[in-house]
Amino acid sequence: MKIILVLLAFFLGIPVAYSQAENQIELLIDGLLEGNEEELKLMIEGFNELLDNPIIFKDISREKLSVIPFLSATQTEALVICKDTAIEVPSWPEIFSLLEVSQQQRDILPNLILLSDSIRQYQKYRPPIRVNLMLSYWQNIEKAKGYGNTVDEPAFVGPSYGSRMRCQILSRDFSIKTISESDPGEYDFRKPDHISTGFAVHPKRQPFRLFFGDYQLTLGQGLGIGTRPGFRSWKTDPHFQLRRSQGLSLHGGADENRFLRGGAIMVQSKSLAGRFFFSAKNLDATIRENDNNMGFISGVYSSGLHRSTNEMLKKGSVYEEIAGMEIDYAGRRLELGALFMMINLSEEFQIPEQGDGKQISNDYRKEASRYSIWFRRSLGKGMLVGELAGSSTGGSAFSTTFSSFFNKGLAYLVSFERIESSFFSHYTLAGASLIKSEGKQMGRMNILYQPRRSWGAQVEFQLNSTMNPVLEKTDVIDYHLKARLYQKFELWQGETWMQASQNKFMASLRLKGSHPSETFNWQGEIGMSSNSFLNVFDSPGTYLSLRGKYMSRNESLRIQAGLSLFTRNNGTGVFYIYEPDVLYGMSLPALSGSGSRTFFLLQYNFLKSFRVELKLSRLDYDDRNEIGTGNDRILTNHRTSFKVQLVYRRR
Q1: Which residues contact 187 (CB under 8 A, 6 or more apart)?
Q2: Mapping DSSP to helix (H, G, I), strand (E, B) and coil, where does residue 572 land?
Q3: Are residues 403 and 413 in contact, defined by beta-carbon separation less than 8 angstroms?
């Protein structure tokens, strides 16, 4: 996986090295392969947007800093207090000593926050209105069964290529985001399958912000409302776990489900803020019949694919209305918030029974309400956060986390979360479907030891218990242990996972190395993984991944290439091996069986504002003659893909 960064910020009047910032952000996200694909995409998009629109130190606020995902609530509060009390703008060494950040964060933050010496340079260089425009095209060379041939009728309604247009207009007082997209198999660019547009008004030095169109809203710990993926399940250090919620932001992305469509307003004073929001849109959902032959929602169809007749029947099958309000208070050491919202649907949904959840009830309804309260309490070098949420369906959810930040190089985090099966979880980060949550409780402990800036170690232990209303065994326990050793980059990572009640076990090990330089660098990784089920162990699977990058001295041309070899003798389990991609893209192929994967990525900047990007990739299997199943089946042992993207940026 790779994040393509654009040089827009200056650190103390000196241009920041493009390649250095790029490598450090890639290393920061590296190793988070357990995260949801949409979460990773949004993190990449967020970093790119921050580099397009960095935060000026004198304009720092809690709301603006919330978009930096690795800043914890303690660090955010420290920056706000520093801005409010400092007579002169401090230097970065002074800020770093105040925040006690890691070495990777030291390399990244100057690209995202501008100090006084760099503001003048940046303002001369930045026009009052900036425009980002991207046109993308991608396709698999080998066509899947669903596109038809001379014998079979095609199952998919559109061509075998995908296309996307993304436009972003930024100024000091307003922002516009829009996207038009058709995935392979859907109607082509002349009739886009997904269109999203949002408009935000944020006048400088005014205590309000207005949003129209498509927007996202995540508050507290995301149990009350969390339309933006929240990175809550990521195995990483406490800075990520305790970051502030991102509040209101424009959507304008390729995710076709997790957003609100309507209007919202945020009004704030020095310590109080209020958000009022309304949304009305159609949802993709699966409708089934109950015992009384009445239709009900069995779940949200979240893939965003509308290629076949069956997939198109799910598109916009449910109409949804949402209205709510939220009030929060932010002091120097304490933050409190409260939320109430109503959700009305055009179809009924089923409410699971409470308790052990072994059976599904026959209770149906079309509306639900949800409420939550949350807090954040700063405790010197520690932080305590928590949220309690409830719904009119009778279920509740609770989450609390305590973390102590670096004290003589040691930081640790302890958290607990419980979600009942009957909790109405639509638009939350509870990790459940639209209506019926499986229910879960989870405990986690994370220890990070960093005695020096250049190296450290991390150990995590996690205990999960899933209360599934449709399984006979309603108590599925997972034990998760993960350890990392790194020296500026990650050297070693080991991981074990066990599901005790079903006799499942997994163990893995990764070794990594890299050699950066001004124009060329390489990275290598070797890994091993073994799984067992019912006490039967498979033979260990292994992989080797190598990739290199060349960049011209004027940074106008970059070429990257890579090779991955993998094998699993019994064909079970997968390896996640990330690789660089085009701007705002994310490539995280899941590789199983035995074979190889190669890629080539070229990026060329020309005429100051334009960039052309080309990516070719090929996947070859040694243990099969076809790839995929059903209409996605390809009748060869290889798959070749290419992407072409044109980017225009008026900076």
Answers
A1: 157, 158, 193
A2: coil
A3: yes
Lowest mean pLDDT among 26-30, 179-183, 207-211, 453-457: 26-30
pLDDT tens-digit series, residues 590-629: 788 889 999 999 999 998 889 999 999 999 998 888 988 8
Looking up tokens 């009052």 gives 128
- Residue 234, SS3 per DSSP: coil
Paired tokens of 641: 């893909």
DSSP string spanning 246-302? Answer: -EEEE--SS-SSS-EEEEEEEEE-SSEEEEEEEEEEEE-EEEEE-TTS-EEEEEE--
Return all residues near 445 (Cβ < 8 A) that are at least 6 apart: 412, 413, 414, 415, 460, 461, 462
What average pLDDT score do residues 120-142 get?
79
Over residues 6-30, the mean pLDDT reads 37
What is the pTM (predicted TM-score) of this model? 0.81
Q: Are 282 and 318 in contact (CB under 8 A)?
A: yes
Residue type, 468: N
Question: Which pLDDT value is given to residue 470?
Answer: 44
pLDDT of 580: 83
Q: How far apart are CA 113 and CA 101, in angstroms?
A: 14
If 0-12 CB within 10 Å is exposed, 13-18 middle and 19+ buried, where does residue 293 land? exposed
d(CA 34, CA 201): 36
Residue 359 predicted with pLDDT over 80? no
* Res 152: pLDDT: 61
Of 226, 264, 229, 259, which is closest to residue 372 (Cα–Cα)? 226
Task: Give residue 252's region: left, alpha or beta (phi > 0; psi -120 to 50).
Answer: left
In 46-204 the beta strands, taken as DSSP E runs, fall at 55-56, 113-114, 129-140, 161-171, 174-182, 194-201
Take residue 607 and report the two structure tokens written for it.
Answer: 């005429």
Burial profile 85-96: b = 16 or more Cβ within 10 angstroms, e = fewer: eeeebbeeeebb
pLDDT tens digit sequence for 508-542: 676 766 666 667 777 777 877 776 655 555 667 88
